Amino acid sequence: MPFRNRSVVLGGVGLAVLLAIPLVVTQPHPQHVLIMIFLYALMGIAWNLVGGYAGQVSFGHAVFFGTGAYTTTLLMTKAKISPIIGMFAGGVVAAGIALIIGWGCFRLAGHYFAIATFTVGQMVQIIATQWKYIGAAVGVYVPLDRQYQWWLTLQFKSKAGFYYVALLLLGAGLWLCWQIGRNRLGAYFRAIKGDPEAARSLGIDIFRQKLYALMISAFVMAVVGGVFAQYVLFIDPASVFDGALSIKVALVAVLGGAGSLWGPVLGAAVLIPLNEYTSVMLGSSGSGLDLLLYGVLIVVVSVYQPDGLAGLWDRLFGARGRILREKKVTADAAARS
Amino acid sequence: MTGVVLTQAILSGLLWGAIFALIALGLTMIFGVMDIVNFAHGDFLMVAMYVAYTANAYLRMDPLLAIPLVAGLMYLLGIVVYRYIIKRVLEAPSVAQITVTFGLGIAFRALAHFVFSADYRQVQHPWVEGRVQFAGIVLGAPELVAAVGALLMTALLYWFITKTETGWALQAVAQNKQAAALMGINVDRFFGVAWGLGLGALGVAGALLANFYYIHPDVGAIFGGIAFVTVALGGFGSIQGALVAGLIIGLVESLAGVFISPQLKYAFVFSIYLLVVFIRPKGLMGTT
After folding, report:
1. Closest partner CB to A288 (pick from B95, B114, B278)
2. What is the pLDDT of residue A321?
3. For residue B288, which of B33, B14, B4 has the smallest C-alpha distance?
4. Whole-angstrom Cα distance, residue A133 to residue A112?
């Protein structure tokens, strides 16, 4: 019990600190960085369900993000529906699109799947760029709400409002992922990653489970997309259906720790500030030095910490992690012999 | 009239297709030998183009003359990248193998940005420029040279893989690493050779492209994307597959661009790809 008590206390203190940050840190830029960390962490969690837990590496997650951003924004501009409802509507639409994409792409395995998701992402971007009804290449401006009726428009007077929205959603995402991880669904996902043939022989409908993973993942991505659109107030296919976004989301999850609950949070907490502050310090004038550092860091982490930062964290701080890893090593050794 | 337009579209599609095939060759080879997808492939092409550009701008070397130089330097780069980076992730989870090459790509692109800035550049006074005309069909002369060069290089590499001892060793390593090691083949060395040859072939493609194409830090993005599709369409690890797939993609791109809409041409390329892999999940000529 002392262990449990201690983690409850630590969790409570951590939550209090997170809630108090906007009261202390009032400058817009640090708040912006924190919001980006939360949103990317949440997207990393979403990606992790498919790419980490179920082992199906996707390079097309921007499709779901963009679907959420567009659905939410168009519902508001064309039908006056609040983004608070709109973002979940976007999630449902994205889950439907995930069903279609998954139905096609999950016939493919490994690299073929990864490249298929990449091409689907490119195609969706091209189509969105040509589609007049949704604004084509010009994009959509979110109408400004000067009364800041956030329940109608999800716009706030200061960034602190978005900070709490992002934090709340991140908490919900973590809870969802934790629940999935400890339930039957999570066990299915891990079985698919570990040994698809064995999972199939035990009667698991692999195709169906992969579809579930992708649909849940797409829903979460779309919710983030919906919030993001109201945050930046302008969306176009080049920004919300960007292939680079798909890759960044995957990097956040993988560098943090693919298949671990807190991995994407760690990944976002390292990558996003690095991305935001190096470009401020080294000058975002297009010299490229910031991205050079970013790229080199990704290489270094991949080479020296291939299990992601969560693995490093465990080794440094977690007794539980050490035991789990030893178990895995013995299991691997047993499998090899 | 439409006959001429159609012939024109088919010919220029085939020219580009041969170039796409050569670009994809290095990618398919590295994958075939060691099961690693090099996501920095497009960025390595960009590096090769800048090498050719530098040789042209500072040494007054024609890009065609610079082909051996570019290919040699890219061969060395391939060996170095394998030895110091890829080798260390061979036993790592596959996601780490993916991120490591992504990171490399980002770093090289940023480096090009830093050294050469984002300006679009072009080689000066190449030997081959202008157009070739016959029977109402107009083709770019450097494109024609690039396509012929690409086909020659593809044939050369195919000959090398199937007819030389080094090529046999590479095939052996690709088929079964343990068995190859037991036969006395130094697997590690041939992994390096695969990277060297893969990037060397890419170097040839880069020099041929630099002869007429604009050079900028992000030039690898679209060629890299097409290379993945080419390799997956042809079947990972298959040289003949890459050639056939490259030609198909060139044709589809050109025909869709001329007869449907230039903005939608890549959407057609990608849908042909998806259509093929849904029917044949391992690509046209994939085996494993």
Report:
1. B114
2. 47
3. B33
4. 33
